[in-house]
Amino acid sequence: MQRDLKKSLKKSNMTGLRGTMWLFRRDPQELDKEERSRLALLFECAPDLKQAWRLRRSN
């Protein structure tokens, strides 16, 4: 999925998403405002990841 996302985004957008998969793996309560914003950008670019993230958090 990450590879497909990289292929579909412009280079400028990809720069803003660097390191975001680490945020995806962290506890959302531990994220600061900037990190939550970056995670939101990731979810805008890859809505399927948002659904996977929600499912992961519900368990």
Detail the topology: elements first, then pairings.
Elements: H1 2-8, H2 11-17, H3 20-25, H4 33-45, H5 47-58
Q: What does the model show?
A:
It is a single chain. The chain is mostly helical and 59 residues long. It has 5 helices and no strands. The longest helix is centred in the middle third of the chain and has 13 residues. The chain has a domain of 34 residues. The model has no long low-confidence stretch (mean pLDDT 77).
Determine Rg (CA atoms, Å): 11 Å
Mean pLDDT reading = 77
Based on DSSP secondary structure assignment, what is the total number of beta strands?
0
The helix content, as a percent range, equals over 70%
Coarse structural class: mainly alpha
| String of helices and strands | HHHHH
Oligomer: single chain
Q: How large is the count of helical segments?
A: 5
Short précis:
By secondary structure, the protein is mainly alpha-helical.
